[in-house]
Amino acid sequence: MRALLQRVLEAKVVVDQNITGEIEHGILVFLGLAKGDDFEKGKKLINKILKYRFFDDEQGKMGWNVAQADGGLLLVSQFTLMAQTHKGLRPDFGPAMPPSEAKVLYEALVEYAKTQFDHVQTGIFAADMKIYLVNDGPVTFNLEVE
Predict the structure, then answer these.
(1) What is the DSSP letter of 58?
(2) β-bridge mates for residue 75, sequence order
(3) 80 is known as an active-site residue
(4) In terms of pTM, does the model score above 0.70?
(5) pLDDT tens, 35-73?
(6) ∠ CA 38-39-44 to the nearest 5 degrees?
(7) Which of 80, 115, 122, 140 is catalytic?
(8) How far apart are CA 107 and CA 76, in angstroms?
(9) What is the per-residue pLDDT across 83-98, written as a single tens digit (0 to 9) for each?
(10) Within 10 Å of residue 69's Cβ, how many Cβ atoms?
(11) Which of 18, 49, 69, 142 has the fewest CB atoms within 10 Å, i.e. the most exposed one?
(12) CA angle at 57 for the pair 53 and 62, rounded to the nearest 5°
């Protein structure tokens, strides 16, 4: 399980010209699920994302988490994060969780995130999404849990 976090000034997901999720300030999370990932591992990752300190505090240091920064969380499924890219010129998506399983887990993790944090928005699983964002910094981190 892998999450690419981007600190954003604003971000939104558009599907078929409709906004499905939008935040003004906070974290845009691209979430990749691998074969063998489960809900417990996902809970650990969501908790880590919500506690991760990469917003500026009063001293200008990365000391605040998303709640302390009064931000939002935009979760977007992203199977391509699980691609193996070390050999050849074409990504290998073999490690990615099959879509039918991934959808169930992704939706469960979205619901869990909503129980832990009030400002959660999402994309639509497996949709052709257009992501618009203004990266703040830029600040981008790759988180993984095992």
Answers:
(1) T
(2) 29, 122
(3) yes
(4) yes
(5) 999 999 999 999 999 999 999 999 999 999 999 999 999
(6) 105
(7) 80
(8) 11
(9) 999 999 999 999 999 9
(10) 18
(11) 18
(12) 40
